[in-house]
Amino acid sequence: MRAPALGGGSGRRGEPWAQASSTLGALVAAALLWGGCPHKDLVDISPGARQLKPEQYKEIRERWTRNRLVIRTFDSVINATVTYLSAELMSAYVARYARDYRMTRAERRRLLAARLAEVTSHHEFYMAATTADRAWNDFHRKKSIWRITLEDDRGTRVRPISIKRLRVSQVHRHYFPYTTVFHKAYLLKFPRTVGGKPFIDSTSKYFKLMITSPMGSARLVWFLKPGGSPRIRPAAPGPAQGPAREPATP
Asked: Global pTM?
């Protein structure tokens, strides 16, 4: 069994890595649910696998997720929910995914190695967004009305290497339940080095994703634990279990 690379590729059909505008009331409710206020949780950006259980995925996903709702003249301009794909989150995701699909230990090890290789070669984000006008939801286009940048605590700012629009399926909505029928989903990739030096690592205090346009701007911030934490070897997967019964909504 082969899982596709982040953002596409051949392999297991349905994995999230392989598609509106909502009413103002719905967007406000979503923003309140998914952290419309500044998110102060400290996160650990250090590399390496973690010993995690499938049941921990929901909590860890929420810890790495930020949301911003921008309103202008009593109308929603953009509602963006973004999850940073960290090594910790990928460890939890693989544990959950492997249980859901009853993968063997060897399949789980291969999937974990592939996911960690992807997220340690780039800074990657999963973003689900709605805009007031459907035509504005064009982040993947070269002439998009939006400008997205990633900035560290030292003021270094970079543009994405790529922005890929994803074809949303029910699997996306299961693992990232803030992705509704009104959202378009994207995979954002940024470099890990700038000028030959590491860009955002365990010595950083925070990093922020900026989404800007003439209609409005959104800033999403992740505060980091000082120095990160030591690398942990992945735990050997336990016996295969049945599919998860957790509902697809938080």
From this structure: 0.78
